[in-house]
Design brief:
By secondary structure, the protein is mainly α. The chain has nine helices and three strands; from the N terminus they run ααααααααββαβ. Strands 1-2-3 form a three-stranded mixed beta sheet, covered by helices on one side. Strand 2, helix 9 and strand 3 form a beta-alpha-beta unit. The longest helix is centred in the first third of the chain and has 34 residues. InterPro entries: Cation_efflux_TM, Cation_efflux_TMD_sf. This is Co/Zn/Cd cation transporter. It is found in: Membrane.
Amino acid sequence: MNQKYIEIKSLIVSSIMNFIIGIAGVVVYIITDLNFLLLDSAISLIAFISSLVAYYISKNSHKKTEVFPKGLYFLEPMYALFRSLVTVGVLLITLLETSASAFAYLVNGEGYPIETGIVLPYSFVMVFLCYGLYFYNHTMNKKIGNMSIIIEAESKGNFIDGTISLGIAIAMTALYVVDINGPLGFLHYTGDFFITVILVAFSISEPIKSLIASFHELNHSVIQDEELETMIINVIENRLPNHHEDFDIHILKQGTHIRIHLMITRNTQLFSIEELVSLKRELIERLAEEFASLDLSFVI
């Protein structure tokens, strides 16, 4: 199945599901006025908007222009980078907001108890939807050899949303057994702060990892996926079984585009121009079975 087809299909499903999840979160947040639900719904709405942007990028990144004759593949890691930055920003802003609310209660005694009624069933439904979307996107990306940094960013966003919802469900369940007039009664007023702290601590590593990976791809670093790198090297070495020491293989990845440089390090007269042209054609034909977009060049 075509890589772009799978990527676009995944983004359409993500857009629809993220819209449903985001709107549900906003409605419940308006009803309850709980800050940790603001975090939940904000991330889902960011995911919906970014899914639409990602869909446009995926549809157009392969197009070549006079300014970008190699295509617009740089838009794919750029999208993942900005989405990761926004996700980290939302996590930190929500943490600061809930910290202010907790401070107001603990210092000034101001605050309202958390209403658990509608939140508990909502959070369990969101856990099912978010983790379901995560596994869907993860599976779709796996089908294309984890080539799509866009789908990877989507799946990590879904995982964060599902984790946040799971934390909310666990916390709301716990509040049912905590007496508001008991020694832990303060949790009914400050519980959203403690929930948010835990959720941010567990969730923030994923967008940071995606941020680093996106930065690498955007700046033409060598491929970071060891599995993909090994597969490409095996294809090349199988075609050149007696010349492993004659080449340095440099593999670059930007979005769904692969760029391979074979540096001839020993005898520059090892192959004639005609042989290199033929060899290049054979390698591209073989690698095209795995990758929708790639360039290969010999460097003398």
